[in-house]
Amino acid sequence: MDVIRRHLPTRISRTTKVLAWATLISNIGIILTGGAVRLTDSGLGCPEWPRCTADSWVATAEMGIHGAIEFGNRMLTYVLIAISVAMFLAVVRLWSTHRPLVVRTLIIGFGIPLQGIIGGMTVWTDLNPWVVALHFLASAGLVLVATQLLTRVNAELKHRGPGHPVVNGQTTGLTRSLAGTILVTAWASVVLGTVVTGTGPHAGDPHSPRHDFDLHLVTQLHVVPVYMLCAATVLLLITQLRLTTSQNQRRAVWFLTGVILAQGVLGYWQYFAGLPIGLVWAHMLGSALTVVAATSIYDRYRAHYLTRGLGAAEQSSPPAQRATVSS
Question: What is the domain range of residue 229?
Answer without folding.
Answer: 10-316
